[in-house]
Amino acid sequence: MSINIISQNEQKIAIKLKGIPLQYANELRRLCLNGVAIYAIDTVDVLSNSSVLADEGIAHRLGLIPLKTELSSVEQDNPSDRIMFTLDSGETQETRTILSGELKSQDTIVNPVSENIPIVTLAPGQRLKLEAYARLGRGTEHAKWNSANIATLTESDTDDERILTVETTGALEPQHIVISSIMELSKRLDEFKNLLSDLK
């Protein structure tokens, strides 16, 4: 069995899997998509919202903003850890769009992957003020915790060889998604072996 990197950049990685059974390769693909823990905003306390978008709509949009996540956080995977964000637009003087860059994080690493993701447009005299809390989660719970936009597994021209391609949301580097997924798959297989041993 072997795993080799074919290509990689900041957004995407492609690796060659040789001699790995299809069921394991496909489980690895699924873990890359939604089995790695990353941060996402999960709770929002809206203190003031005079925009046309309801509080629930604001909370939904905040949850879908990808947040940078440290690999060490993924390894610890402590669901009780929460990171607070604050946002206060003030009373606007002209029509403008509130962007993700206006979210202030209490953490130096966990921040939106882009400062230019629209949240809501405010008209003159409107205001948005809130506190939001991000926690670690996995995409199996909700799509906002998906670590990858795309994870595909394709057959190559060579027997018993497949290509796994993973495109990150920006929360983690592509190679870190693959490494964490391999570790998670290994852990699950060990747990399954122990379960079978207990049944004997």
Write the layout of secondary structure elements.
Elements: E1 2-8, E2 12-18, H1 22-34, E3 38-49, H2 55-63, H3 71-76, E4 82-88, E5 96-99, E6 104-105, E7 118-122, E8 128-137, E9 148-155, E10 161-168, H4 174-199
Helix pairs in contact: 1-4
Could you describe the 3D structure shown?
With 200 residues, the chain is an alpha+beta fold. The chain folds into 2 domains: 2-36 and 147-199, Gyrase A, domain 2; 38-139, Beta Complex (RNA Polymerase Alpha Subunit, Chain A, domain 2). The protein is built from 4 helices and 10 strands, in the order ββαβααβββββββα. The protein has helices at 22-34, 55-63, 71-76, 174-199; strands at residues 2-8, 12-18, 38-49, 82-88, 96-99, 104-105, 118-122, 128-137, 148-155, 161-168. The strands form 3 sheets. Strands 1-2-10-9 form a 4-stranded antiparallel beta sheet, with helices on one face. Helix 1 crosses helix 4 (174-199). The longest helix is centred in the last third of the chain and has 26 residues, at 174-199. The protein starts with a strand and ends with a helix.
Distance between the termini: 29 Å
Rg computed from alpha carbons, rounded to a whole number of angstroms:
20 Å
pLDDT averaged over residues: 93
**CATH C-level class of the largest domain:** Mainly Beta
Total number of β-strand segments?
10
- Count of individual helical segments: 4
Structural class: alpha+beta
Categorize the overall geometry: elongated
Low-confidence runs? none
